[in-house]
Amino acid sequence: VVPAKKPHAVWSVVNQLTGRKRCNALNLAGDTPEERRNELRTFSGIVELPGESSFNISPITIDEVLQLAKKTPGNKATGPDDMPEELLRLPQVALEVTRVMKYVLAGGPAPAC
């Protein structure tokens, strides 16, 4: 097996040897919702965030996901999910991404890695 042809296997071994984790979850210091809100308030006092009115929270459509996926360049390295950008161009995958994004924007928890 040539390592260059199996990057996933190579990185898996590198991650094992170095003790690196594949995915880091967002861990806030607070244990309760109120403590988490206070952490976010402190953070927002440090970082200038845009006002709520500047966020576009209109429903996401599969057409938007497909359109954005087509704009992304192909043949790039995968991210932590090991999924190439080209997968988002498949309607079945774009439909699932759209469903998850709508769920999270409606207040549901984001999927874990």
Structure keywords:
113 residues, mainly alpha, extended, FH2 domain-containing protein
Give your account of this protein's structure:
- It comes from Macrostomum lignano.
- This is FH2 domain-containing protein.
- 45% of the residues lie in helices and 0% in strands.
- The radius of gyration is 18 Å and the shape is extended.
- With 113 residues, the chain is mainly alpha-helical.
- The model has no long low-confidence stretch (mean pLDDT 75).
- It is built from 4 helices and no strands.
- It has one domain (25-105).
Question: What's the short version?
Answer:
With 113 residues, the protein is mainly alpha-helical. The chain has helices at 7-18, 33-46, 62-71, 91-105.
Q: What is the quaternary state of this protein?
A: single chain
Helix count equals: 4
The helix fraction, in percent, is 40-55%
Identify the overall geometry: extended
The largest sheet, given as strand count, sense and whether it forms a barrel, is: none
> What's the count of strands?
0
Strand share of the residues? under 5%
Class of secondary structure makeup = mainly alpha
Please give the structural blueprint:
Layout lengths: L6 H12 L14 H14 L15 H10 L19 H15 L8
Helix pairs in contact: 3-4
